[in-house]
């Protein structure tokens, strides 16, 4: 079981702390979603002028950069130019770090017609396919926003190549938001699932649709069933912890949440 975490969970850590703590806690890699408040990390010195030093630092620590989690939003016409630039910049970093994946969101509809949004997304993916092929990277669409149910993700995948577009299964969202069972998710999307995000939660009492994140195993997301589905079907990708400290500052500190995730997942993988 290959474990990583997104830097969303440690918004105060500098790069050196990220590398040292990842190795100390027993992670195998790091997924970059911002660094100390800056989301577009390609604008920062460690990923620009000092990128080779950064690459060597990860290599020396025995850590992979598992994914660059972008802000690309497929259904947003307003972000089209920005989406293209982000993809190009992250594709360059993928080449530097030997990273296969760039995460993208389907995005929120905000009242827009779903079919029109799909046309926008397909137009974007057609435009960027040559970029993805040339760079040898894959855009992975997260089960998130208005594209959380497996049926809706399938619509986004329609017409795309499995060589360039895959799925990031955030195992929390389909279950929590729609009660979607992991067997159903895998049956629909399994052939395109390349990567996973993990987090736990419990519904908020007397607040329908609201939930509170919890340490792994302290919520009710059926991780045993999810892991069984993945293992049975030969999944060998990353198990990435997405502790949303950046968006929810009241969450416990990463010094507590990160090692707890490793302990929980190692036990899960061992069948304990």
TrEMBL record:
List the InterPro entries hit by this protein, alphabetically.
IolE/XylAMocC-like, Xyl_isomerase-like_sf, Xyl_isomerase-like_TIM-brl
Give the Xylose isomerase-like TIM barrel domain ranges.
20-266
Has the keyword Isomerase been applied to this entry? yes
List the Pfam families hit by this protein, alphabetically: AP_endonuc_2
Keywords in alphabetical order: Isomerase
Alphabetically, the GO molecular function entries are:
isomerase activity
Specify the signal sequence span.
none
> What's the protein here called?
Sugar phosphate isomerase/epimerase
